[in-house]
UniProtKB/TrEMBL annotation:
Signal peptide: none
Boundaries of every ABC transporter domain copy: 2-233
Function per UniProt: Involved in beta-(1-->2)glucan export. Transmembrane domains (TMD) form a pore in the inner membrane and the ATP-binding domain (NBD) is responsible for energy generation.
InterPro entries: AAA+_ATPase, ABC_transporter-like_ATP-bd, ABC_transporter-like_CS, BCAA_Transport_ATP-bd_LivF, P-loop_NTPase
UniProt protein name: Amino acid/amide ABC transporter ATP-binding protein 2, HAAT family
A GO biological-process term: L-amino acid transport
Length: 240
């Protein structure tokens, strides 16, 4: 469904993202894990059209979308939940959601808004409140809801666990699993490799802007190299 081939990108200096190739099949959750500064945000921003690729291709269901303006990429069916949520603090919850539906037909917006409120009752309860008054977890839900307002086929998620307490992270990941079970395809980048690999079907490891390892998430989670570098203590040590 989403095919990224030989993608390179950066910020004007040497490339930060180097020759990255990965794919996400319809209905899959695929994760890209990597340390701080590995290039995860750069990857998603280059795919979402917020950064210009310097090489490579991005295809969504066969259509070339690489290097297109961000709003065209959203219209093609790819929505980004950005790092740090980036909700507009003084705007109400509902106004933030409507930003995500920019350019859609009124009837579609109404229908999607009802579906988002159905999925996130807490956002409905707080729809008139400024987004800045929400808790971190609620702001993350708002950022996900805003991305859903575009009616995407593929959701790109940039570290949804960032800065959240473990219980809230679990709540967010449960929600992502439910959205996936309803058919939404996801590319999730995370520093929280343990959680991300538990959720995803397949995974890639990004290091220094390059993919250095890939495989079924279950296998990556057991791989000694990953455990040492990204997971700290091996799961068996927890059990002991
Ligand atoms: N706006 C920018 N201008 C110049 N360099 C940048 C910019 N943003 C990121 N970089 C550099 O690109 C590299 C990759 O950063 P990126 O944010 O993509 O990593 P990351 O894996 O998402 O890490 P993090 O978990 O910290 O967000 C880093 O070396 C970073 O310093």
């Amino acid at each position: 469904m989403l095919e990224i081939a030989g993608l390179s990108s950066g910020y004007g200096g040497p490339a930060v993202l180097k020759d990255v190739s990965l794919h996400v099949g319809a209905g899959e959750i695929v994760t890209v894990v990597g340390a701080n500064g590995a290039g995860k945000t750069t990857l998603l921003n280059a795919v979402a059209g917020l950064l210009r690729p310097s090489g490579g291709t991005v295809r969504l269901d066969g259509a070339a979308i690489g290097g297109r303006p961000a709003e065209r990429i959203v219209r093609a069916g790819l929505s980004l939940v950005p790092e740090g949520r980036q909700v507009v603090a003084p705007l109400s919850v509902e106004e933030n959601l409507l930003v995500g539906a920019y350019g859609r037909k009124r009837g579609d917006v109404k229908e999607t808004l009802a579906a988002v409120y159905n999925r996130f009752p807490r956002l409905k309860e707080r729809r008139r409140q400024p987004a800045g008054l929400l808790s971190g977890g609620e702001q993350q839900m708002l950022a996900i809801g805003r991305a859903l307002m575009a009616g995407p086929r593929v959701l790109l998620l940039d570290e949804p666990s960032m800065g959240l307490a473990p219980l809230i992270v679990s709540e967010i990941f449960t929600l992502l699993r439910e959205l996936n079970q309803q058919g939404l395809t996801m590319l999730l980048v995370e520093q929280n490799a343990r959680k991300a690999l538990a959720l995803a079907k397949r995974g890639y490891v990004l290091d220094g802007g390059r993919i250095v390892l890939e495989g079924p998430a279950e296998e990556l989670a057991k791989s000694p190299a990953i455990v040492d570098a990204y997971l700290g203590v091996a799961p068996t040590e927890f059990a002991a």
